[in-house]
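WARN  no MSA supplied for this record, continuing single-sequence
INFO  ligand: zinc ion
INFO  echoing inputs
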Amino acid sequence: MSHNRIIVPIRPGCSDGNHLHVPKQGTLTQVIPPTLYLEKTGDQWMERRGHAQPGAKYVLDRLPDGYTMWQRPRPSDPKHIDKYLYGHPQSKLFDSPNRFYMHFEFLMNNNGSNIGCQCKLCSGGSGLLPRSTLSSAKASTDGANIAASSRPSTSKSAAAAPAPSFYKQSAAPVISAPMMNTPFASTGSLTQSKGRPKLVSAGAGSSRVDEEGTPDVYRNLIDKLKQHQVVDEAIREPLSPDWYAEQEILPGLLQSLKTTGQWVPRTGDIVLYVRELPKNLEIMRHEVTEEFQMYDEESEEMLGSPLWEAGLVAENPTESSSIADLHRGGNDRSVIYSGVRVEPLPDPNSEDKSLSKRHKHVSLRQTRPFVLWKELLHNVSQDQWHPTIINALTVMSTLSLVGKFRFRGTWPDANIFCHGLYIGSEMLAVGDTIRLLPNAFKKQTYCQEILIIKSIRLRYSNLDKASDNDYDDGRPYNSNVFIYGAGYSRDQSQLNKEYLSQDNAEPPKAAAEYGEWYPLHPTNKELVVPYTRILGRLYEREAMAFWLNAEPGHPPTLDNGREALEEARDFAHQRDRRMTQNPGTTWHWADCRAESLNLRTINGLDVSKHDQERDVRDMRKKMKVIEDMENDKPPANKSTGLASLGSRGLRSFMAPGTGDQPALTREPSSSASGTASSSTSTSSAGKKRPNIINLSDDDEDEIREHTRIVDNGTSMGGKKYKVAVVIK
Ligand SMILES: [Zn+2]
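INFO  complex generated
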């Protein structure tokens, strides 16, 4: 390297390079350093960015990871040396720095993603996500557990929230009677949730409040745990309008999920959909190319690929749907009732959210779970993709929790129990059957295990290791999300007759058509997995068969969409700016769904912090009125509260589809809003707390005994769990 060159550092982490792509041994010699590429690319890059000084020469400090230069004498003309750059994810060669430059610049500008790259190698490719992205990012996926727990969130707004929340949409009837009578209900300001909680040191005493003055229930509970050593209580956030809103919606939502097929899109899901699909057209898989195309049954013609868009389900079907409805001619019901309202997904990295406004009601036969993107876009080159596809891929490594209802802890550990969560493109709730990613410890390479969710927990561990200052620096403490439930396998070698009992004789929900299932443990134990092992909801096989246009002899397997999901998560790590701007993060934990997707509006209404009209103090005054009204009643017990709300909640949940009137959108509860401080003490501190149970060591032992944690193949290094880790 010449001395008079100025070293130009490349942007760290910006690579799609494949370390494994190197020539066969003995054929070529590696050139170290790859000066030719470093110099030419360095010069061009500085020039392109307008930073080049006249006469100056530049040299990159290194090539993007995974790229290596090799050479050999040309066999037909040994005096001529051929030089190649290896490492392109499609295992193709760059034969000159000029050819490489376009790809290099694209990587630098897109955080190492090559999706959309127009260079010769990329644009001549198949249009699929590069394989190697998968392998190169594998390490980070495997490390996700750790990374996520120590520093799970990257954006400031997400970082602090110990417990994410939930965005919901609801029609006016959802608002409970007392709320309806307050001006609060008519302001429409229900749509927002709170931003990230902040510490207010002055005047807040020992209790924690967020920037809007709402007490931070979680931090206060942690403080309380520290003081009392043991806490077990329902989470109530009497000062949070969002919390109230969630109480209204959740029961109905959860109730409806019990009776609805898992294949039916849910509010907050991201789906693929075809905007227009005339009645005479079907989406069929081409027998030879396996490409999904529109097929005209009358003319018996294949009409080319449909234009798949990715969109947020903003309203789910208000009429119950059967899988038979998917097939054409099932009925003529208006899609307003039987279909879903979808809103094209805007780019989470961009301020431009105008795509959201192009919403549409589409029938369920026009939608597919987003996790099938790779199959449905098979053979469709990237430049043909609708931009929303990339947008959806970008948010596939996001997580937010729904309905946090109980805090239970024994210092220095604690769990917050939740009703559901959003992960990537899907919403999951207690009671669902989910597919699990392959277990690396068992050397699984494809999906063969499922889990019936019994509880969803945000777990804080080693709270004693955190100082008070940790509060304001990202997520406080070690936290992670675990799913507890009953595990089953399709793998007969997992069969242990001792595990069989009356209680697990029935096949899990949505699983029957896939064949025999073998319990992974006795019914008095639970399987525990970190959220990173979630593949998604188990979709009924019949629905999968319809979506994938499967031949009767080749029904879909449990593994369909798994690879696509893994690729999508890797892609998201590399493109979601909230992660790429914080190297090392592989998941974005958000307060609520709208924040995960970085949305401004849902159903046309402002959400979250983007709602400028929010006036918290005013709202709280009104909430106080409600609170006082409630206090005149017998103390509300959480479960009866839920039960009594159940029917109304259910109706409300079903109602929003009714069309013309836009449903209210909100993301209530919010981790930030809280109980505590003065009003908590008035409402509850004066009372006895019958719900505090002292967990003895025996209890702990029992929990431990009835629990085993199966890791997702990552080391739990450095993390201490109260519950033993049993790796099978
Ligand atoms: Zn390229």
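The chain is about 25% helix and 20% strand.
INFO  checksum written, moving to next record
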